[in-house]
Amino acid sequence: DLEYWNHFKVIPHEPEEWIAEGISEEVLRRYDIRIDTDSNRIVYPVRDARGRLIGVKGRTRYKNYKLLGISKYMNYQKIGTVDYFQGMYENRDDIIKADEAIVFEGIKSVMHLATWGQNNGIAAETSRMNDAQVEILIRLGIGNVVIAFDNDVPYKQIRATADKLKRYMNVYAIVDKEHLLGDPSEKRSPVDCGKEVWEKLYAERKRII
Hints:
The protein is α/β, with parallel strands linked by helices. It contains 9 helices and 9 strands. A 5-stranded mixed β-sheet has the order 6-5-7-8-9. The longest helix has 11 residues. The N and C termini lie far apart (about 45 Å).
């Protein structure tokens, strides 16, 4: 609930590591990024499309989290079915105006895109969209969806999701044919290597038919 969310500290300066990665302070404030000082995590609200707080998610700030046996991401409360997209509440109007949703895996990618002035990104929180998420996209009534999952996700897996959507809209996939994002083992988002790389990948997006 809101009282629980307000337990987390709103700091004068947003997480410096995310700023160093190129996300603007303005965008971090827009997405209400906070700090859990007790567990040293960056935390952010999970909201449904109507803006209702349904959970809190955190990302550890420890770089050696694997050695420490700490999960990189965690949900502070059990959410259940992922029947939402992170960023949909903030970006719904822009998505409809653009007639396009760009679906990333994580909210940080959405914030990178927003820093570059593009506010039609959302995050699935997974590399396999479920039926509830597919239905949300269909109900939006938009003409285009771009699946921009991390570079370790097989095209076959993206295609399986696209097959559920392409009856209702044009579906595209970001495909890194030239390995601009590096080796797939790095698990990089299409926005992780900067705006120029993203724009090239987006311009060369593949229509799934």
